[in-house]
Amino acid sequence: MQTTLFIDGEAGTTGLQIRSRLEGRDDIRLIGLEEAERKDVERRRARLNEADIVVLCLPDDAAREAVAMIENEAVRVIDASSAHRTADGWTFGFPEYEDAQRDLIAASKRVTNPGCYAITSIAMLHPLAASGILPADWPVTLNAVSGYSGGGKALIRAFEDETADGYTREPFRLYGLGLAHKHVPEIQHWAGLARPPLFVPSVARYRQGMLVSLPLQLGALPGAPKPADIHAVLADHYAGEPYVTVPTLRETASIATLDPEGLNGTNELRLHVFANEATGQALVVGLIDNLGKGASGQALQNLNLMLGAPEGCGLDRPLLL
């Protein structure tokens, strides 16, 4: 029996990738809106209520509006916006978060897809905080750089279209300098932190790919843990996971530079632990494709769990925009 799926916002970057990844699936029947129907509220309402599963690839306010329009209690939702990331009644769509998370996602009617910065940050912080090696009230700092595709169509045009308003030749820029980035509440909540992390995002002149860095002064942490202790917590938490991997300390030590585009086209999130034993310092770095495991790939992984389909269905073929 086919599952009817409606992608609300399928013309956006994430929606296009999800649709492309679903090509050839005989267990899913996609329904949509014609170009002329996209601003027809009643036609959109009908699609939202006739689908078995709805995937929202919309700005936050539009996502909240879409959820409010769903009156059919049988409709299940995956929201790729940040509108419901810490909301009651929504399941956090990070299957590798805890042992029970896959079962929670599979049974849920409302799944919130993590943000790209957030899933990478939480993947590092949650195991460390849950183990006690990183106190919940520790003053966490996160530094991140993303390709410009993470900013959606407007930012893509600003970097690629010389005729666009806001066109820029900047090689790199910091932003979120008010220190209140929208992913901070999500990171704090799901990482289990008692205070907001200091999060410093940036964007560079390349299309996709992301690095998030967590610097740690090990001698200042309770018990002065060693780099091997940090690594062991992460490696144990993600042991056997196909999409979250932790290279050995030896493998990471052999790396002189780290390319933010290194996992583009995949659904992998890779966590490195760089270390300097002499100075008692470590740097945990998450590498991810912000459009893959950070967006469309993660949404498809959640969809597969909700359908009872093989978790990797549609995820293991390269897909670049």
Task: List its traits.
Rossmann fold; Dihydrodipicolinate Reductase, domain 2; 321 residues; 10 helices; alpha/beta; 2 domains; six-stranded parallel β-sheet; globular
N- to C-terminal distance: 31 Å
CATH fold annotation of the largest domain: Dihydrodipicolinate Reductase, domain 2
Radius of gyration: 20 Å
Q: Could you give a short account of the major beta sheet?
A: 8 strands, mixed
CATH architecture of the largest domain: 2-Layer Sandwich
**CATH superfamily name of the largest domain?**
Dihydrodipicolinate Reductase, domain 2
Anisotropy-based shape:
globular
What's the CATH C level of the largest domain?
A: Alpha Beta
Percent in strands: 15-25%
What's the multimeric state? Answer: single chain
Number of domains: 2
How would you describe this structure to a colleague?
The structure is a single chain. With 321 residues, the chain is α/β, with parallel strands linked by helices. The protein has 2 domains: 3-113 and 294-307, Rossmann fold, CATH 3.40.50.720; 116-290, Dihydrodipicolinate Reductase, domain 2 (2-Layer Sandwich), CATH 3.30.360.10. 31% of the residues lie in helices and 20% in strands. It is built from 10 helices and 14 strands. It has helices at residues 13-21, 41-50, 60-69, 101-107, 116-131, 152-160, 184-191, 227-237, 249-253, 292-307, and strands at 3-8, 28-31, 53-56, 76-79, 91-92, 110-112, 141-147, 172-174, 198-200, 202-204, 210-217, 244-245, 269-276, 281-288. Strand 3 (53-56), helix 3 and strand 4 form a beta-alpha-beta unit. It starts with a strand and ends in a 14-residue tail after the last helix.
